[in-house]
Specification:
Blueprint (H helix, E strand, L loop, with lengths): L15 E9 L2 E14 L4 E9 L1 H5 L10 E5 L7 E8 L5 E5 L27
Antiparallel strand pairs: 1-2, 1-4, 2-3, 3-6, 4-5, 5-6
């Protein structure tokens, strides 16, 4: 087993778990999400990934969104929504997403109040 058993979960990034509004096309539904991320030094930005639970049920009679579908996620108290792309549907019917924009939750900050994914000039590359 490697020293990086779970590189997606950064100890400095608590992520978000809880209710969210997810927009698929012109429909917006309330669902539960689980999102976490980390700063990727090779990409020079914060990357995130998550799970949307019971999205197909919340959409009702509409077909379940397929991998490749773009969704918008808004969590309570977020300054702005985030954009993600559905990457797969797991065995339990949850939709796995990969973040395209900055995450829908606040990024961790250092002791100076600068986002941990910001560069030395305080510029957030995400």
């Amino acid at each position: 087993m490697s020293d990086h058993a779970d590189d997606l979960h950064d100890q400095d990034d608590p992520g978000y778990r809880g209710p969210a509004e997810v927009a698929v096309g012109d429909r917006t539904v309330g669902v539960d999400v689980e999102i976490s991320g980390r700063f990727d030094p090779l990409l020079g930005r914060h990357v995130w990934r998550g799970r949307i639970r019971k999205l197909a049920e919340a959409l009702g009679g509409d077909p379940s969104p397929a991998p490749g579908t773009t969704v918008t996620i808004t969590v309570p108290g977020a300054s702005e929504p985030a954009t993600a792309r559905i990457s797969e549907i797991d065995l339990w019917g949850s939709h796995m997403v990969d973040g395209i924009s900055r995450p829908p939750y606040p990024l961790p900050t250092d002791a100076n109040g600068v986002h941990s994914s910001a560069d030395a000039n305080g510029v957030d590359p995400t």
